[in-house]
Recover the amino acids of this structure.
């Protein structure tokens, strides 16, 4: 009897250790991934300079633009959070407004970026970003299928 009890206890311990060692995809309370890579404006500008062969002046201008975009984005996030707490409860309406505002911001940012680096390099950059998005989406889909 003691042998069986010891065997069961050992199996339970082994099982619990293997379950706790699995990757939980680091999710927060809202079930969103928390291990996203957040690049600084300098890192983004350096990446663009490397991928698009930008001059030092262009890299500096892109970094300034990225800093400006980050500040605007932070202000917008805070505004949306405060409106969520105090604003009207129509979630879909707010979501559509945010989506439209974000689309407008992206168009504005692309126009500013085009002034700095030119249309050809902007098109190349957008193509590279789209490839990365597709790769990331494919990875998430495959990961979701593996976990089932």
């Amino acid at each position: 009897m003691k042998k069986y009890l010891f065997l069961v206890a050992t199996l339970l311990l082994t099982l619990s250790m293997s379950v706790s060692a699995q990757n939980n995809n680091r999710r927060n309370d809202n079930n969103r991934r928390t291990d996203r890579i957040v690049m600084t404006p300098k890192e983004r500008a350096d990446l663009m300079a490397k991928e698009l062969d930008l001059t030092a002046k262009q890299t500096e201008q892109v970094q300034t633009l990225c800093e400006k975009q980050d500040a605007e984005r932070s202000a917008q996030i805070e505004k949306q959070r405060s409106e969520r707490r105090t604003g009207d409860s129509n979630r879909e309406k707010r979501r559509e407004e945010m989506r439209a505002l974000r689309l407008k911001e992206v168009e504005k940012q692309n126009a500013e970026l085009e002034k700095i680096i030119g249309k050809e390099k902007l098109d190349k950059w957008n193509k590279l970003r789209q490839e990365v998005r597709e790769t990331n989406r494919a990875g998430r889909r495959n990961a979701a299928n593996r976990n089932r």
In short: The first helix runs from residue 2 to 20. The mean pLDDT is 82.
